[in-house]
Amino acid sequence: MKQLTVRVYPAIGHLRLDKITSRHIQQLINNLALNGKSLKNGRPLSRKTAVHHLSFISDVFSYAVKMEMLTDNPCKRVTVPKGEKKEKDIYTLEEVAHLFHEYVYDDKGMISIAKGLNADGFRTTFGGLFRQDSIGHILENPKYCGDLSQWRTHSTDFLTKHRVKTSENEKPECSLIELEDTHEGIIPKELFEKAQEIREHRSRLVKNRSHHSNKHWFSGKIICGKCGAKFTCSSKSKEYYSMHCTNRQVYGKTIRYEADGRKYGCDIPHTSEKIFVVCMQYVLEYIDTQRADIIAALKMDIETIQQDNIVFDIEPLQAELEKLGKKKELST
């Protein structure tokens, strides 16, 4: 509601209800549909947003007519412009096959593949940037290997013709349609099945709080000192990988702030894995030379913790509980 009133009130909120005409509302809707910008990220508003605003204004006038304050709803004569269709860069069939090859044979992650497509100027079918979930939808879609898989739908209202997806709980025997070899595939079925195996394997690693790149000793252990994101590896030069901040990999080196205050991008340069190898070797050698002292210190800490005369100060906790209890009494 707040998002709607922010734009409606400045435009027509100063006018009396009976003085607002269809022309006033049409000017507002045209401006939203053609020139409107998102309050969060500054991107152009969708036509659906303009429809929501018109619906909101129409509800106000419909209530006024119901209360006999007005005799007509001017929104009935207002239309939402469709706007110009944007040209979209659609990737070719060869590039779809290349995407699967990068995922299966080059061991690239979905974020890395999405960044490559965005850098090359390609966009999704909706005209947006590729993201991890965008690549995931492509990788799991069997239409690229010549098969068809889609959900059945059914009508919930015969007057409005509104249709929804048939869930497995409602009709498990006919909720999903699966047909093989309905058309010529872009990629071999073996490649598609291999991609599904890799997705399942990486999914299990994620559930176990791991990652498919955990074959490298430093995976998830090195944190960027500027933005706090994790470091990951990309290309390998001779025997060492090139490591970089994932924030920079996804959003680039230009630092920017969105309207919600979130920070994107990182200007920390790429680093050779060799530097971290040398640091780790130094740490391990230090631990080895100071082994006796470290063990003695650990034993002392354990003995201290196991002592029975340890006193815990619980007064701050009691004060906090009393404060919460007072708040609860006031709320009731």
Tell me what the structure shows.
The structure is a single chain. The chain is mainly α. It has 3 domains: 76 residues, DNA polymerase, domain 1, CATH 1.10.150.130; 115 residues, Hect, E3 ligase catalytic domain fold, CATH 3.90.1750; 118 residues, no CATH class. 45% of the residues lie in helices and 11% in strands. The protein has 11 helices and 9 strands. The strands form 4 sheets. It has a 3-stranded antiparallel sheet. A two-stranded antiparallel ribbon has the order 1-4. Strands 2-3 form a two-stranded antiparallel sheet. It starts with a helix and ends with a helix. About 3% of the residues have low confidence.
Largest sheet report = 3 strands, antiparallel
| H/E series | HHHHHHEEEEHEEHEEEHHH
Give the tally of β-strands.
Answer: 9
Q: Tell me the Rg in angstroms.
A: 30 Å
Report the oligomer.
single chain
The percent range for helix content is 40-55%
Number of helices: 11
Quick structural overview:
The protein has 332 residues and is mostly helical. Strand 2 (153-157) and strand 3 form a beta hairpin. The protein is built from 11 helices and 9 strands.
